[in-house]
Amino acid sequence: MTQTFVLSLGGSLIVPDEIDVEYLKKFKALIERYVSLNFRFVIVTGGGKVCRKYQQALTELIGDNQEGSDWMGISLTHVNAQLVKGMFSDVHPEVIMNPTNNIDFKENILVAGGWKPGFSSDMDAVLLAKKFGASTVINLSNIDYVYDKDPKYHDNAQKIENISWHDFRKIVGDKWVPGSHLPFDPVASKEAAKAGLKVVIMNGSDLESLENIFKGQTFKGTRVS
Question: Rounded to the nearest 10 degrees, what angle do helices 121-132 and 186-195 cross at?
Fold first, then answer.
């Protein structure tokens, strides 16, 4: 039976400062290896640091404009999505920009970017997981775990390996702010909880741990359910 994984690939992994070609080569090799084992992948790209630079520039130019900042971020997710799509051959021919459209997904890889203002591309990942019957969204970012407080400012911050949606939503809140640094989008969290989805939050640079998820083995990260 074909298994579908939905990956929310953070822009911080694609473009930490410059485009990380070496990381993308390794990510590509891992995905293609599991495609050969009859896995399917939906990869949703984020915007990352470049996105935040554009959003900050817009704020300095015209002041606070959440919708404008969101559109700026969405545009950059599309650029990242085109890059990721271009890496693969057995891939859906279009980057998905609206997860609610009818999608004739016959290939083994589909790549999507952001959709519209009001939430991040994490929401697209949740909606695509629902559409294609995936039970889990794997959120690949630059953090190893969710913590009970920000470890940058609190030496006693404790990592969380398992957490309920109820408790997780207390951490991330209910409101999306463009460019915010949260482990998972608050609006997407509400939708995922409502749909009964699980979300794994992990460091996407640890490809060995990601592969362990594909194998059904122990991995490093936070499970939200």
Answer: 20
Share of the chain above pLDDT 70, in %: 99
- What is the per-residue pLDDT across 40-62, written as a single tens digit (0 to 9) for each? 999 999 988 888 888 888 889 99
- Look at residue 27 in the predicted model and tell me its pLDDT: 99
Distance CA 171, CA 59 (A): 26
Helices 165-172, 186-195: inter-axial angle, 10-degree rounding: 170
* Bridging pattern class, strands 109-112 and 39-45: parallel
The CATH code of the domain that includes 115 is 3.40.1160.10
Report d(CA 159, CA 18) in Å as an integer.
29
The answer to whether the beta carbons of residues 104 and 166 sit under 8 Å apart is: no
Q: Token digits for 156? A: 């006693």
129 sits in which H/E element = helix 121-132
Number of structural domains found in the chain: 1
- The Cα–Cα gap between 43 and 110 comes to 6
3-state secondary structure 22-72: HHHHHHHHHHHHHHCCCEEEEEEECCHHHHHHHHHHHHHHHCCCHHHHHHH
Burial of 121 (0-12, 13-18, 19+ CB in 10 A): buried
* Close Cβ partners of 2 (under 8 Å, ≥ 6 residues apart): 38, 39, 40
Best CA proximity match to 66, nearest among 176, 183, 172: 176
Domain carrying residue 128:
3-224
* Secondary element (H or E) of residue 3: strand 3-9
| Residue matched to tokens 């051959």 | 89
